[in-house]
Amino acid sequence: MSSRYSYYLSLVLVLLVGLVISLIPISSASGSPQSAVVQLQPPAASLTSNSLVRYSHTLLLGSNGTPTQNGTALLSVMNTISNSNPSATKPYLLKLEPGQYDLGSQSLSLLPYVDLEGSGEDTTVISSTISNSNPGGATPPITGTLVMASNSEIRFLTVENTSPGSALIDTSQVAIYVPSNATHVHITHITAVSTNLNIGMYDRTYGLHNSSPVTITVQNSTFSASGGNLGNYSIQNNALISASQLNSMATGLGVICVGSYSYDSFTGFYAPLSNACVP
Questions:
Q1: What is the pTM assigned to this prediction?
Q2: For each of the chain's 279 residues, which pLDDT tens digit applies?
Q3: Structural contact between residues 246 and 220, judged by C-beta atoms closer than 8 angstroms
Q4: What is the 3-state secondary structure (H, E, C) of the chain?
Q5: Is the Cβ–Cβ distance between 173 and 200 less than 8 Å?
């Protein structure tokens, strides 16, 4: 056998042995095959008008419709998430594309264990004209453009309330409303604006109205209120906002109220028990 023949034969044998080894499953130390890491690609879908892309616990809503169509789709998606029964062990994230989401005269109520995330305070805007009837100034607000829920967070978007008010009865307009039963509420990088269009004669505006008796966390956010004839409150707070609120601002014609308050049904105003409202 020539040396050249022996060389090529050896090379073929090495290649065959390498091929056989590559076909043998990789085993762990215990001898059981290891699971291969598979990278799943996102759906190959282009977001058309109000398209919804759904992952296991994240929903991405498109915004190529009109502002009204986008708002209607947003309300619908929240109902879809509700049917999935979010929980502490199964939280959800609703992600919004840049765009305008007009809810009309309705409000968007978040669900416990559901976070709402926009694509930036300047690019994702949720708005409505919903108002609270407040005859004689005897009742506090009970709703707003966006209603928070326990164990929820909103971030990276703008919330607006542009209700015109009423010339006949007392009304109040709220951008973000935190109900009294809400706990573990987080507001991060949010712009909240409540603007009365000065049609009503007996109106109050609130950028953020917190009825919750527990601490909420507010970070790097801006609140403003204007146009209310009976009062403008950038933040009306019925509990203690966490120290991280210091990273935020109250602007415009409103005032910021940080502390504990009791509601006086006779006057229709909150009486400060500690701290005070400041310009």
A1: 0.74
A2: 556 666 666 666 656 666 655 555 544 434 444 433 333 344 444 445 678 899 999 999 999 999 999 999 999 999 999 999 999 999 999 999 999 999 999 999 999 999 999 999 999 999 999 988 865 455 778 899 999 999 999 999 999 999 876 655 678 889 999 998 899 999 999 999 998 765 555 677 888 888 877 778 888 888 888 877 777 777 777 665 664 555 676 655 444 444 334 444 444 444 443 344 444
A3: no
A4: CCHHHHHHHHHHHHHHHHHHHHCCCCECCCCCECCCCCCCCCCCCCCCCCCEEECCCEEEECCCCCHHHHHHHHHHHHHHHHCCCCECCECEEEEECCEEEECCCCCEECCCCEEEECCCCCCEEEEECCCEECHHHCCCCCCCCEECCCCEEEEEEEEEECCCCCCCCCEEEEEEEECCCCCCEEEEEEEEEEECCCCCCCEEEEEEEECCCCCEEEECCEEEEECCCCEEEEEEECCCECHHHHHCEEEECCEEECCCEEEECCCCEEEECCCCEEC
A5: no
